[in-house]
Amino acid sequence: MRLSEKEIQEIFTSLKEGRSLDIVYREKLFETNHKCELIWDGKEAKEEKLISDFKILEDFIYTQNICDSNKVVKTELVNSDYLLEDWSNKLIHGDNKLILASLKKGKLRDQVNKIGGIKLIYIDPPFDVGTDFKMDLTIDSEASSESLETISQIAYHDSWGSQEESYLSMIYERIKIAYSLLHDDGFMFVHCDYRIDAYLRLIMDELFGKSCFVNQIIWRRKGGSALKGMACLSNAHDIILCYSKKQGTRINSIYSDASSEYINKQFKYKDPDGRAYMVNVMRSPSPRPNLKYNYKGYKTPPNGWSVPRKTMDKLDAEGRLHYPESKNKQIYKKIYLDEYPGQLINTLWTNIPALKGNNKEILGYPTQKPEALLERIIKIGSRPGDLVFDFFCGSGTTCAVAEKLGRKWIGADNGQLAIHITKKRLLDLRSYSSQLNSQKTYFQLLTLGNDEKQYFIDKLECSSEDEQPKSKKGENFQRLVLRTYKAKPINGFTLISGKKSDKYVAIWKTSKRCPWSFIKDVIHEAISESITKVEILSFDYDFGLLNIAEELAKEEGIDLSLKYIPRDIFNANAIKKENLTFYNSSFLKIKTSIRDGQAVITMQNYSISKSNPTEEAKPDFRQWVDIIDYWSVGFMCKRLQQFAVDKNNVGDQFNSCRDLLFENHWQSYRTSSRKIICLTTPPLQIPENAKYMVAKARDLFGNESIKVHKF
């Protein structure tokens, strides 16, 4: 396209000054179909490459009891390699953009297609509120009826700074991949409010097409305000946008119960046997020759009846016609009350209240939606056996309702707390569902493993935001960790890179588990530099090290602490708001009693302090039992080279059971209605081929500890 000299100069000036091109020049320089779309700086549909396939961390079997000391729990080994041949529902922990990319290009895509593809996607994404949502967790003492304290944990970050562009890019990229994953006969529902509904409507129109818009649903989540004066009207509703993948795909008809007032008013007629009914007109909306006929002295309506004569005779024979006394009036069809399905729902949903008060559904998770809302959505957009997907699953309402309605499901979330709450919620389904107890059903916990964290480390290294020159791999990540940990960077050491108070800090700069060789080298450097207090920061540690590393360091005169780098270290808003905690390593102590092919396991101690619990340590309920939120026991058949580490013969290679599939055969956990946790398992039948028994505990702060018993 020919441009004038003035236009060329204006384009050159804009590019030189780093300003965005005017929309007029964009249209002249680049191809466009001139459709209406939302444009913002940085808008692009950059799709992430497949960084990894999913790794199964745990299998959960619904058919086991939670706690019953008088009944032997039967167990079986699933023996999964990568994925079960038969479908098992998936709960995926990780960044949902990377999860979507892996679902699109990875091995799991074939299995999804094999069962018919994803038929329904529902998301309730952050609304760009500009704040962090917290969940209050009460530490209840088992030793007394008094509550010790309440702690707050970040459930999720809903803040993208002052720039709306970053939020729009986030949601745009994810919805675009979700569109490509959706089956041709599928639907997508997007939950939003007044903050982003206009943006999302335009984004959905662009990605799905205006012709695939189905409905904009208004959900009234609260009533009116009692305040006498307000600056603006109270926001009482949310918006749910519904789009089909293919134009013309029909939703399922859903009915709601009619009010008693409506029933009393409409069903005022009765048959001789007392059967109540209401009447419905039988006029055709448009003229058709075969619908025009007189019937038993009643004249045809102007456009004819709504059914042909043969159908009219059938209805008459069944007693389903209402004849007025005057032949000048028209015949009506009877609608019997005992066959009345209710009223077809429309786009205004006023009969599903938000969760409040003592509602038994409430889990304490912020922005949790009622199950009735998801039940209606899932019934509208899917059928039993279909696959439902929610990649902002939060507290797991979509997954739980899909399970109850006989749908297959995939749920994903980046929040550790969200995944933990969803996991407990799904396990708790069996407490009241006899249907679930009667069948053998599984769900699995998946992640992208260390590859996900390494992806963000590598991305950080490629970033140009840090003006300091990159001298070694992982330097930008190291600076980020030191800044977040509030440690002062120091030079002159090989491995030690910072200092906080009187302790020196060393950082393991990859996503892999920190090995003994690194810890050993840090200890040697501390000794050579006459340093007595050292902290090592890592995402994780080789299994076995946590039990003895600090003890070995102490023998060398080094006060060593192993701490975990928080998962949200790459979240700029979490760092800015100082919401990250570097927890100490945790320890679990159990006692195993085996008799007649059965095992009884007792949790004896748990600690997130520096020292490892000793044999003589007595349980302090106010220190460890009260903060245990969940623990489980499972059996494993795969042979592992080394689980326990001998402090006199510490090697450089360790195998971790976290790399292998952990099959949960028994769990005990706290819920809002069940505060007490069982410290002793019922007798667990040891599977014939089991080689190891694994116990895993999780505290209220999100720390996990594992203990292994070898048979």
Write a brief structural summary:
Helices cover 24% and strands 25% of the residues. By secondary structure, the protein is an alpha/beta fold.
Given the helix and strand composition, which structural class is it? alpha/beta
Average pLDDT number: 83
What is the helix content? Answer: 10-25%
Strand order of the largest sheet: 15-7-8-6-3-16-17-2-18-1-27
Proportion of residues in β-strands: 25-35%
Report the sheet with the most strands, covering strand number, pairing sense and barrel closure. 11 strands, mixed
What does this structure look like?
With 711 residues, the protein is an alpha/beta fold. 24% of the residues lie in helices and 25% in strands. It contains 17 helices and 31 strands. The strands form seven sheets. The protein has an eleven-stranded mixed β-sheet with strand order 15-7-8-6-3-16-17-2-18-1-27, with helices on both faces. Strands 19-20-21-22-23 form a five-stranded mixed β-sheet. The longest helix has 18 residues, at 164-181. The protein is globular and about 110 Å long. The termini are far apart. Residues 80-84, 434-438, 464-471, 610-619, 639-646 and 651-658 have low confidence and may be disordered.
